[in-house]
Structure formats: C-alpha cells, structure tokens
Structures
1.
Amino acid sequence: MNFWTLAGLPGIVFLGAVFGIPLVLIVIRSFTDPGPENYLEIFTNERYLGSILRTVGMSLTVTLVCLVLAYPYAYLMARSSTFVKLLLGAMLLTSYWTSSLVRTFAWGAILNNTGIINQFLQDLGVIDQPLPLIRNMFAVFVGMTHVLLPYAVLAIYATLRTIDVDLERAALGMGARPVKAFWRITFPLSLPGVAAGAILVFVIGLGFYLTPMYLGGPGQELVSEMVAREVQDFLRPGRAAALSVVLLVFVGLILVIATRFVGLGAIVGNAAIDGRKNAAK
Amino acid sequence: MRPSKFTIAFGILLAIFLVAPTIIVTVTSFSAGEIIQFPLKEASLRWYEEILTDRGWLQAFGNSLLVGLFAALLAAVFGVSIAFMAARGTAVPRRLIVNAGIGPILIPVVVIAIGIYMVFSRLGLGGDVPSLAIAHSVIGIPFVFINSLAAFAALEENVEDAALACGASRAVTLFRIVLPQIAPSVLVGSLLAFGSSWDEVIVAQFLNTPGFRTIPVVIWGQMREGIQPSTAAVGTLLTLISMVVFIVIALVNLNRGRRRQGVA
C-alpha cells in the first residue's frame, strides 16, 4: 500500500460509514422488512408503477426540452460579443445560484389561481376564471425545466467553447453556407457536451422531490415523493427502501451505459478528471 | 460565426425566463401587504423586520450557517483524502474510487436521506448541528473531490520529488508542498459544499426536530401552508448568501486562472 492509498483511507472510511452503510442497509431492508414481497407490490400496484412511469416520462420530456432550449443559449454564450456573453452568463448563474426551493416557491406564486399570471390575465379581462396552471403536470414540467435548464446550458457551453472558431471559418472559406457549416462542423463536435448535459439533467430529474411535490397535483406523485411518504406518512420503510433500490438500479444502469460514451467527469462538469494523469500537458 | 438576430432574441427571452422567479421573489419580499403582489403596489421592509427580530428565524439561520460550515469542513478533509487515493493510490482501481467520490451527487437525495435517517435513528442521532453536518458532508464531498482531483492530477510531481530528496518526510511534503498548491481548488470545492448544504431541504427535513430546524426546512414548512411575503423575504436572504458564496468562488477561480497563466 503506497502513501497516497494511506492518505485516502480516512476519506474512504468516512464515506463508507455515512454513505455506504446507509445504502447497504436500504438494500437489506428492502428484502427483509417485511420481505421480498415489497418488490412484488411495487411491480403490481398501479400506484407505484404509475409513479415510476410518470417519473421517467417527466424526466425524459424535461431533458429533451432542456436540450432544445439550452443549445442556442449556450451557442450564444460561446459565440457572441463580450457584452452579450456576460449578460447571458450573469442571468444564467443568477438563476443557477437561486436555491431550487426558492425557485419552486416563485413558480407557485407565478402559477397559482391567485398568482401573477392569472391576476394579470383577469385584470386584462382575457379570462373570467383562473386558468388551472398549478397542481398539475404542466406546473411540474415548468418548474423542473427551469431548475434543470442551467445544468444543460453549462454542459453544452463547456464543449462549445473548446471548439475552434477557425474550423467554421475554414468551412465558410471553402464555400459552405453558414447553416451548413454549423450542422456539418460545429454541431457534431458539440455532441459530447449535449450528451453530458442530457445524462446529467435526466439523472437529476429522476430524483426530483421538492418541485413535483409543491407544484404537482394529488395522485401524481413522482418516485422520490413516494419514497419519502412511505417513510413519513405510511411508516413502511421497507417499501420505501425497495422503491429506492428500483430508482438506484435504474439510475445506475443509465450511468453504466452512458459512461461507455461520455466520461463521468464530463457529466459532472469537470472533464479534467476523465483524463489520464498529466494528459493535459 | 456570429449568431443570427433571431437566436439573440431567443436567448434574451430565455434569459428573462431564467431570472424571472428570482426577481419576482426579491420584489415581492418588499411588499407592504399580506399577499404576494407583482408588480408591487406599495413597498416596505416590514417582512425583513419581522424576520430579523424573530427568534425562531434567527435560530434557524444560525443552525443553517453552522451546519453548512461544519459540513464544508468535513467535506474538505475527506474529499481531498479520497482525491489523493484516486489520483495516485495503487491498491484500488482508480475508476472505483472516482465512482465513490462522485456517487453522492448522482444518487437521488431522497435515497441518501432515508438511508442516513435509518442509520441515525438507530444510533439516536439527529436533531442537532453535528448529525446534520455529517449527513450534509456526504453531499458536499463530491464537490471537493472533483475540484481537488483535477488540481492534484495536474501537479508537477518533480516538485515533490525535490522536497523528498532534500530530506522532507512524506507528511511534510504533503502539508508544505502539495496542499498549498491545490488549496484554491479545495476552497472552491468547500464553498460549493457549503452552498449545497445551505439550501438542502430533504435530508434536513428527515433529521429535524421541532427544536432544531434549518432555514430551508422552515421555508418548506411555510410554503406548504400557503404563500406569504415573509417566505419571499427569507428566500431572498437565502439567495443573497448563495450569491455571496458564488461571487467568492468566481473570484478564487479568476485568481487561480491568472496565476496559472503567469506560470505558463
């Protein structure tokens, strides 16, 4: 055992105790409290099955929309004048650094029956009755997209900024039209960033809790909310554990498949840790 | 290639969508009335006065601050430790260590929350600063790990070899040569760890007791009772502290970049 392995022991022991043991306990509990029938219940009861499908569907939708919105934004940040770049960057980071709790609260205040949008439309006389903008999947979709969009932008921007502008210039110089230069040169080169952003947004989206709980309607719980409620409201930690294992296995599978194509470092926003040692030199 | 006018217009609209919630919460926190209004009809500082004179809020504020600082400290120590093993350890495959170090940010927080809750309730832990700080440090470790691993892997090993050859012990080399060089990255990671603890609700909610609450837990409780301007005021203060943390990170990064350029 070399020195650096020894230096790493305290960290690994701590992480093992506070992160590893709880995970192992969850797995054990899912099979023993009261028994493996926890899983049978999850895969036969429509309530659980529905929430799993809803979670995957919502997360996929949010991921796709985030990518479509984030790409042009990241492109602007990478290719605009310094002023536009700073402005867009500042606004993005303001949003990113506003707690997701506060942002969820804000969407509640915006979408409520007596909220900002409904008040505005009623004052204008466009509508008589408030539009049902909250307590439904639409509100969850808006809230989740808003919270996750910055992750997608930052991942795509991280790749776009490394693409040499001269490549596009060369394509233009050789007679390609701007649109063609973009789709044949820049876009393919930026795909790793798009993939990293997609995986990050999708995986974080699968675990969303506050936003769906606050903005979603009754009977439309996502998996994380079900897990918490099984523990807190129904006092069935075994069932919560089994649901957690299902969620973990799903997230794990996605990451295993994804990391065959994109480095884990690129996904979490620091590609330097993917490289072999001193690869940067 | 310069973006088209259409793309720029789209970007500005999206930027407005991104900042609108932050602006709305900030503006409504200055409301004089009992309900959320936007735009404001009358401004006042009454909600800030209410918060800053309320013992419960101040206590929650102190709890959040202490938990965040303590969690960041734990994350710094253990995150760096794991980074050492990942970068140069030989006993365990690098990939495994990297997965462990990054793992906590890719796993749904609710799973970490119920796992820690199950362990802690068995041990009689919870409801105080140390237990929540320990739990939050798990979420913070990846930030320190990711940042310090990148910095550590980029170090010139020759400098350490020189120290060793001059008779410095391994420990002295670690504390006098290695740590000072990666300190800015560790600081950035720790600040991110603080930020992740500062607005964390789910784990905190599982470990709270009526006598021990953090700001996000109180906000979350209020939100579920109805929308009030006082929540907006606390939310604005919460965001303000996050922004300060972010600005410090940006300054450290800027300084780090400048120094690196100076060397090259």
2.
Amino acid sequence: MKKRQKRLLLVVGGLAGVVMVTGLVLNAFRDNLVFFHTPSDIVAEIVPMERTFRIGGLVEDGSVARGDDGITVHFRVTDTAVAVPVVYQGILPNLFREGQGVVAVGSLQDGGVFKASQVMARHDEEYMPPEAAEAIKRAQREAARTVGHPEGY
Amino acid sequence: MVAEIGLFALILAFLLAIAQGTLPLIGAARGDTALMAVGRSAAYGQLVFLGIAYAMLTYAFVTDDFSIAYVANHSNTLLPTQYKVSGVWGGHEGSLLLWVLILGFWSAAVATFSRSLPREVVARVLGVMGLVAIGFIGFTLFTSSPFERLIPAAMEGRDLNPMLQDPGLIIHPPMLYMGYVGFSVAFAFAIAALIGGRLDAAWARWSRPWTAVAWAFLTVGIGLGSWWAYYVLGWGGWWFWDPVENASFMPWLMGTALLHSLAVTEKRGGFKNWTVMLAILTFSLVLLAAFLVRSGVLTSVHAFAVDPDRGLYLLLFMAVVVAGSLTLFAWRAGKVGLGGGFQLVSRESALLTNNVLLVVAAAAVLLGTLYPLFLDAFGLGKISVGPPYFEAVFLPLMLPLLLLLGFGPRLRWKQDSPTELLWRLRWIFGVSLVFGMIWPLFVGSWSFLAGIGAFLGLWIIGSSLKDLVDRLRPRRESQQTLGTRVRRLGRSYVGMQVAHIGVALVVIGVTFVLGYDDERDVRMAVGQTVEVGGYGFRLDSLDEVRGPNFDADQATVSVFRDGQLMTTLTPQMRYYFSQEQPMAHTSLHRGIFRDLYVNMGEELPGNAWVMRVYYKPYMNWVWAGAVLMALGGFLAASDRRYRMRVRREDEVVDEDAKLAAKDAVKGRGDGAEPNPAG
C-alpha cells in the first residue's frame, strides 16, 4: 500500500469507529433515560405505561401497610394534591417514614398502581429528596393558581 | 485559641501560596535564580502552616471543643477517639482542609524530589502548583472555614453521621484525595512544559512517576469507596453509577489514558500534544469532581450541605483553570513538535487505541452524569440516567480494550508483524478461550457475560505471564543468573504486568458477581431457615446489645452448607443516641470464591425481621484486582530510572539521543528487553 492509501484507510477507519461509538452511546442514552413524574402527572394520565420512571412526594400518613408475607409493602405517595398507590417488595430504607419525602423508581401497572423496584428516602436528617420537594412545589403552585381563580375564567 | 491559631496558620499558608504561585514563574521568565528559588521554600512553608491548621482542628475534635461550629456538627463526646480523629474529614469544611493539606504535601514532595531537574522547570512546576493552591486554600478561607466559632458554644456535639463511623471511611477520603490532588502534579508538569516550550522524553520521564503514584492512590481510593458502599450502605451493591462515583471514575479513566500516553512520550517521543491535553483534561475532571460533590448540585451520601457561594466559586475556579490551560495549549502546543512515525501494527497504535477507548468511555460517563444536571439547571425537567445506560456503553468499549490488553505489552514499538504476533500467542489465546468458556459452569448455569469475562481475564493473565517467562528465559550468549534477570526486568515493567493482572481479576470478579449473585429479601422468624445461593441461613436468636454510642438489635444467623455449619453471622440494627435514624450494620463472611452477607431490614410482628440475605460469588476478586492495580502503579513509579539523581539536563538529552540512535538501529525502544520472538 502507498502511504496515501494507508492514511486514507486510517481516516476512514477512524471515522467509522467514531460514528459507531456515537451511535452506540446515543442509542443507549435514549433507551435508558428515566423521567421524573409527580403523582398529579400520573392521575392526569400523561405518563406512559410500562416505562420506568421516578415519582416523588411524601409518604401519605397512615397509608403504609405490610402484607402477610412480611415482604410486600403498600403505601401511597402524595404531592399534597393527589396520592398514588405504590407497591414494593423488600426492605425499605431506614429513614422511610410516613409524612416524609420519598422517591421511588418503577413503572405504572394496570389499575394505576405504581410498582416500585427501588425506594429511596433521605439519608440524613437534614435532607429532603429534591424530587420529592419538586413534586410538592408543583402541586402547591397548581393549587395556588386554582385558589387564585376560584370561579375559573 | 485553637480555632484562631488554626485560622491564622491557614491565612499564612494562603499568603505563601500566593508567593509560590507568582514569584517562581516570574523568576523563570526573567531567568532570575533568586526568585525561582522562592518556590521551594514557599512550598515547605505552606506545608508547615497547613499542618498546623490541620493539627489545631484535630486537637479541637479530640478535646470536644464544641465552641467551633464544625466540631459541634460532626463530633460528640461519646464518639470513639479514632472516629474523632477521622471525623475531621467527615464534613465539607474539614475534608477541604485535608484536601489542601494533601496539596501542600504534594508541593513539598515535588520540591524535595526534583533536585535533579533544571531550575526553570522546578520553578514553573511549583509555580503552577502554587496557583492551584491559591484556588483551593482561598476556597477554604473564603467560603468554608472549618474554624468558625459557634456562639454560644454547644453543650454536646451532633455526632458524626453513623455511616461514616467505619474503618473503611477512615482511609477512603485521604487515599482518594491523594489521587485527586496528585494529578495536579501531572497538570503542573504539563503547564510548565507548555510555558517553557520544552516537551520531550526527559519531560515525560519526570512527570511519569508522579502520574503513576497519583493514579495508584486514586485506584485505592475508589476501591475503598466501593468496598465501603458494599459493606456499610448495606445494599450489597459495590458500584451504582451514582454521579459521585462517576465523578471519581472519570479522572481515573482519563488518568489511565494519560499514564499510557506518557509511556509513548517517554519511550518514543510521540503523542506529546495528546499527553499534555490528557494531563489538562484529567485535572479538569478532578476539579469537576470537586464541583459536583461540593456545590450541592448532587444529592448523595457524599454531597455536602448546599451553599450557592461554594458552587459558584468552584465553577469559576474550574472555568479559569480549563480556559486558561486550553488557551495556553492552543497558543503553545504547535511549538512542542511531533514524535517518530509508526506503522499500523505497533505498540504506539495499540496505546493510541487504548487511549481513544478510555477517553470515549470517560466522555460517555460524563454525558450520563452531566446531562440530567444541565436539564435540571435550565428547568427543562428532571430525569436520571440509570445504570443500564452505563453498562450498555461500557461493555462494548471495554471488550476490545481488554482483548487488546493481552497483545499490547508484547507488541514492538514502531512496527510489528500481526501474523507473527498472533502465532506467538495462539496457545494462550486458545487455552484461555476454552477454559474461560468452561469456568462459569463451575459457578452456576453458563452465561455469555461470565464466559467472556473469564476468557478475557485468563487471556490477560496468560499473556502477561508468558511475556514474563519469555523475558526471564536465559539468552544463549549470556551467563546471567535468574536473580540478575529478574532485576533486569525493571520495576516499571513488573509494575505494568502486576497492574494488568489486577485488571484481569477485576474483570473476572465483576462479570461473575454480576452473573451469579443471589439476593433475597425475606421474612425470617427465630428458628427459620432460608436457602440462598446453595447456603442455608438459619436465624438462631434476636438479642439486644449495647455499643459505645448506640444500642442495637442483633440477630444471630448460622450459615450451613450441606448440613455443615460454615459460620455464624451477627448483623445489627443500631440506634445511635445522637441520631434519630437507625443504621443497619452488615455482617459478612468473606471468602475467596464467595461472600455471604446478611443485613437487617425492619422488625415484623411475631419475633421476626425482614432480612436481606446475599450470596456474592467472586466479590473479593474485584478488591484484590484493585489492590494489584494500585500496587502495580506504585511499583512502576519506583523504577530505578526515575530515581537517578543529580543529573544535569544535558546528560539527559545525551541519553535521549543515544536511545533514539539505538531505536534507529533496532527498530524498537526498549533496549534492555530480550527479544520475545527469540
């Protein structure tokens, strides 16, 4: 091979590699984005079924119940406007409490139940999961707007 | 008094950093030896004052001085003394003080071990280190002083976060910071070379051991962090692709690329610009890590309290460093020249491929880590990128890298014959492929991932050992004893092979634990047995026990295999007096081929608990691999050729010329290597 041909081969090979890697990365990226939705979004039915996403809010007071097997837990996550039932199997974080912030990863099942594969609570006493705070903020902003125009338009 | 002495010492260190960051650079530009000499004394002085500041804070912790806000927030009279000492770096302010102390240590180390280097080079390197120190000490002083008083003083401290009360955490941050901050030396060398316009094999030889040591410390730091997460967080996971883990992993990947690129620059004089670029990028990623962890943009165990000033300061600091060094690069890089040419199949190409793959991997991690933060910052919605993304990207990138790793060290510089190479390694390749595919059958049902992992691991180990044996084989004409031949290998070479074998162990461990771990959350009543991973776990009793600063529920779990008692595990649920939150304390039985892991979840009615029971095969191979990698780094850095002292610049240049001449004759760089082909 001549020097020029070789260089051409290198450049073409390099470009092909770059294109392949970029495609691979972007493809993996698109498939694995986990979106965040609030309980209000779920009730408003703007959330796709069977896609993994995160919800955040407060664990509703008096909603936590353990199943007979000791492993299944049912509770409700609220953004102070609406609440969504959640089911989870396994050990809850040490700081999981009623009335406290929580973030869960999972997907929506038939009947509007959120099946969580992972439940995260705060990990120290000063900390509120930002997504839980966000959900409440959005719900309250919505509430304030509604209250501001009680008769509608 | 203690706090005031500490603060005063910190201010003095800051002033010395300003002197170190300016005078030697001016001196080097003007050729003024007196000004250049300031760098060394300023570095020592800085270390002394930072040491005093640090000692004062430690003293305040040990003597429970709760009139200092930081101490009151992170300690408690009941805290065991070793945790009071390590509590100094248990929060943002104190860990930053540790960071600058370590930076002072690296500066002083450069000042001490650079006596054989040209005066201008030392002055420039120390000057750049001084500029970095100004940034970090300034950050400590102006936004995060650990010496702030609490008025009125607290009667009792709020205690150290129980998660941080663990031996693993005593050493994790210092090791990690040694690594992070160590890369500032490689960065300083790169910037010094750009300023001086001198970037040659000698430069690479000076900068290489520093990079290797920093890289080895970072490896230890990340390994310890992972080990700590595995053991303390109690989720049984050891890597979560959590943004903070990624923050430390990106500089590691980039640093690994730098280490390999430096090899080409030292041996062949090639890749010069690329090496400098990598040094700049590695240090930029270190700054990014500091920003991610300390600005409050992330929420994780590592994230410290939110304060917008801190984030802004670090962001500005990062912007100045990155923009400044890249501008300098654009301006000066043209002057440093190109190295020797090489063919498609050569060690240079292999190392170039290694670099490209590592940098792409780091970029992919960067994308997954920063994209959600950007979206959030611009109010475009909250998303997160899950571990599947990182796994999907990492596997295809690491596969060719690991395959190449078996060939790399056997490839010749400049040009090699692919057919001959394949022929030399055909047996190793075949045997590792066959055994690799069979091995997983001894652990569980066959899986592709585990098969590939075992194959690649064996392939790397096999080709490393074959290379070692070939090099130790006596040459016909020479009468050297085995001892001499071992010594002639050089620590640099041995270190490389040790580190590569470490990589192999990590690969085997990771793929096996991913493929075959067994995890179960179960309700366990006293007397009940559950089966996990072929082991029987029986809950014998539940008791209450008392520790120095906590009460605990303790479960006694007997583990059986084929009816035979293997071990007894005692996990605890601890209730620290000073905290509202309970903390699960994991009990582990470690073994070469598997870890058994029991963790308490929550109490259930009827004398029962929800328990988390794990079987983790080959987990310890991951840690052992990390240890070997770090060991390899330290070994390589201690090679004799880096320690040759008191040599003048012209002699070094002479030797480069000789090396180059020899290359021209033999077509390869390592004159000392026996020819593996025989």
